[in-house]
Amino acid sequence: MKKLLAACAIVALIFAIGCPQKKAEEKPKPAAPETTMQAPPPETGAVKAPAETVKAPAETAKAPAPTPKSETKPSGKPPKVGR
Amino acid sequence: MKRLLSIAGVLSLVILAIIFVRCPGITGGEPTNLRVVADTDSTVKLTWTAPTEGTPDKYIVYFKDVSAASYTMVANNVTTTEYIHDPNGATGTYQVAAMFGSEEYKSSSTVSTVPIATSAKTVAELNASGNSGYGWNRSDGSGTTYSMTQAANAANVDFYITDFQTATYSIASPDQGPSDPGGVVPQGSWRVNAIAGGLTSETAPLPSHNPNIYANYQDITQTPFLAAVYTTDDYYALVKLDGFNPQNKTYEASTWFQLVKGLRLIKH
Fold this sequence. Notes:
The structure holds 2 protein chains of 2 kinds. By secondary structure, chain A is mainly alpha-helical. Chain A has one helix at residues 2-17. Chain A starts with a helix and ends in a 66-residue tail after the last helix. Mean pLDDT of chain A is 50; it is low at 19-71. Chain B has one helix at residues 2-22; strands spanning 32-38, 44-49, 58-65, 72-78, 82-85, 92-100, 103-106, 111-112, 116-124, 133-136, 143-146, 159-162, 170-172, 194-196, 217-219, 225-230, 236-245, 250-257. In chain B, a hairpin with a 6-residue loop joins strand 10 and strand 11. Chain B contains 1 helix and 18 strands. By secondary structure, chain B is mostly beta strands. Classes of the chains: A mainly alpha, B mainly beta. Chains A and B meet through helix 1 of A and helix 1, strand 7 and strand 15 of B.
């Protein structure tokens, strides 16, 4: 009788421990709800090609002396260059 | 003694029966090492490693749109360890499952194409008080402001705000700094980025990198002003300039950085 009880106890233990591979079947936790965003607007692709507004620098070299290489700092926007 | 042996034999059979009944998927396992890269600038390529427990019958790919609450199946009969997905302009999170018969083993990790948002930070005009440079961390996508007066910051800046000593403001590539008439940016290895302006949507894919659209700077013609930045190391980001303060000459810059290199999807 004692042996029978011991056998039953072992069987119950196996049930309690279960199969280790079963753990891999656990479904992933449901992700936390994310902040809802507005429905995506249709892709407009409306990026206007940048207007080329390259302005030629005004020629202001009016000094009487022939000094074409001015040392003044550049001013104004640089040429817009596509890249 | 015979009785003892018979009990042990019966017990062994019971144990074996329990194991086989309770563990039908004993050879199954989950995919690991899930990764995402850009396939094109608007499609993504997922790769993963097969389960160590064996070769599954097939894989299932799940996608959760950034604006959705749950995953949806986008492929249910993948037999290789990669998959190319066209999300039609959306960003989101991916998960892959291995199927062994009817047993499903989902990957414990996920990958994402959702851009990293950085809330509004104040950026000042080059000659005003405050930092006028702004750049993104390539590891976590976060944005930070930087001073443009220190060459040591050259490796971190992706754009700056300037008026080029004119009446209008611009968002400019950092490499314009040393020649900027503001005259405060030292020489250095400033990034040669490209900027597109005049975007009309915060969530639509950014324009493909193209010299007809991207340039060394863009004038800020309105607020809010949406600009796309394409970095010299092949990342895309969206910049939203708002909250102009004419006294302090500052804007509030909110940004979204796409951590997947070469991917121009920015829905958030």
